[in-house]
Task: structure prediction
Amino acid sequence: MDFKTLYNFINKLTAVFEKSKTRKDFILGLETVFLKVLKLDSLKIYILDEFSYSLKDFEKPWENLGDDENNSKLKEIINSFLAQKESYKISENVIYIPIYDDIKILGLLKLVLDEKITPEDEFFEIASLVRGQISYAVLNFKFREKTQLNTKFYQTIRNIAKLIETQYELSYILPVLGEMIDSFIYEHLIYIFIKTKNKKEYKLVWPKNIKDERIYTYLEELNPKSGITLRRDGKVGIFPLLSEQKLLGAVVAYNPFDKLNENEINYLDEISKQASITIERANEYMKVLKDATLDALTGLNNRHQFALRLREETATAKRQNAPLCCIMTDIDFFKSVNDTYGHAVGDCVLKNVAKTIKKELRENDIPSRYGGEEFAILLPHTTLEEAELVAKRLRSAVERKKINIEEYNIEGIKQIGVTISIGVSAYNKADKEIETLYQNADKALYEAKESGRNRVVVYRAS
Result:
């Protein structure tokens, strides 16, 4: 290989290392560069998990490759490199190049070509140089990701601690906790369990379903002194949620194939301790705020106050034979707002939507935060046709509103917009339960979301 070709090849490799922000970028960049010197069909990097000695696809490290014939062969090749310090191995049209951290093998670069290759090919003049370059790049990725992981860990801890500043309902807090932990520990499924009021069993509160029912058996054996419990050879980790040495529940990390490594155990332990503090404070706040009327985040009536006003207004409507309507609304794709920009921006969105709702209503209308991103509005002395007009005005006002998020320092984004879906219903004296009013509005809201969102649907009795 002439000097100019070699120089260009190494320069382009270096450029790939410097410019790649993700593992996928890195692999695509390598493919482009290797195509300049080889008739390349495919390129793969495999990483050896030192904890479980299993192989991982560098591009998708959360996937376990299993123990099929192909992966067993890859392990054999890795073992042969351990025995013989070679720069490469050839098998017909495949080149294997080891990836090292000093003398410790990290993984394997596999190049599949469109034709057979022999040791005489000029590419092998630079094989040892390629090995060094690729090894350096992979180590650099691992170091960078470890640094990012540490940063994300402290951000997660801080976000869990901040949750209680604006939220105190466990029905909202616990799913958010689950999402935060799940986005941090991506190789394991995360479950959150809370002990029921009778303290005799555990209830899964996030997500909705569980993969392995045996986890319930492990939870039954927990006690306040259990500490971190590892089951199934470290593939299941149980991290208790404690308050004054009393079990509140547990965070469970589960993977049918991979063990939790030492760093993940330490991270989850600290996160679970912070989650325990947040849950404990939420319980305390609920006791203090039991008689409160306003939602802490939005300043609207809270759910408890909505229930009281619903009873009062339906009684008045019945006594005076006056119309009464209800609007149920929630923010479209609110979860993606939290996932994309963070929960602090999510709270900002909730406050702004609440402010817009309040601004568009009349003085006698009664807006409440029903829970999460859902709002309930009572409209006394309002016909169904008038309520529909109010709902359309609300939908339009929220759609027009641009929410300033500059203070959250999200690169390239200063404003975002959201939309709402709305269901409207009218009070019927014939209804036996006063809850039917908002339940019918909720049915209409569901229809609005199912039919495309950002729209108003009116419930009309058949």
Notes: The chain has twelve helices and 18 strands. The two ends are 81 Å apart (CA to CA). The mean pLDDT is 88. Residues 167-290 form a domain with the Beta-Lactamase fold (CATH 3.30.450.40).
